[in-house]
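Below is how a single chain appears once it has passed through the pipeline. First comes the sequence as given, then the structure the pipeline wrote out for it. We keep one example in the README because the format questions we get most often are answered faster by looking than by reading.
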Amino acid sequence: MESHELLIFKHVAESHSISKTAEKLGYVQPNISQRIKNLEEELGVRLFKRNNRGVTMTSDGEILLDYANQILLLMNEAKIKINPEKWQERLVIGATQTISALKVPRILSSFLSLNNQINVKVRTDTTSMLLEQVVYGEVDGAFVTEPFDYSELKTVYTIPEKVSLISPKNRPNKMQYEQTLLVNSNPNCIYRKTLIHLSKRILTTIYVSLSLIHLRLFYNLLVMDLVSV
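Resulting structure:
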């Protein structure tokens, strides 16, 4: 039993797919299938059940996955301990575009000030894709902006945030019917979704879609009273 075979087994187990594992690791599918077959022949048990949607682990496969995770973790720790310059500890964090721009830099700055020996990488994607990446072990954790329904995942940290709607001082505070509303052009932006949801509740129907950069520019012009809504 080789460590690389255990790594392949781990990827197949987490992705429930031989084809996805082959694509991710850069192998052809027959190579992945043969590695799994080698493990099954060596152990004398079936590790996966094949079906039309991919593969699912057997009870013996679940036992091996637990040991494989421990073995691979210990091997990684040994490499870091023996030669920390070559095998730097790595942390991969996922985040949505909005969070990666507004929140992650400050969070990572504080973290790295205390853990500068860790190599941190950030991946930006949509919430749904990030959740899949956490499940498949492609990222160690992810900052997301929407509720999720994955039994194998849990929330470990929450950032409460206050969102404000601004308008000129010389206009009434109450939003009017068909009043123009400026929103971020990115459809995955949580602020855009929140603002449009609020506007629909109070019958606002006219939208002007702007990029985040343009929204910041407009805010500055609004503060200087050079534009009006």
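The radius of gyration is 24 Å.

See the next section for the split statistics.
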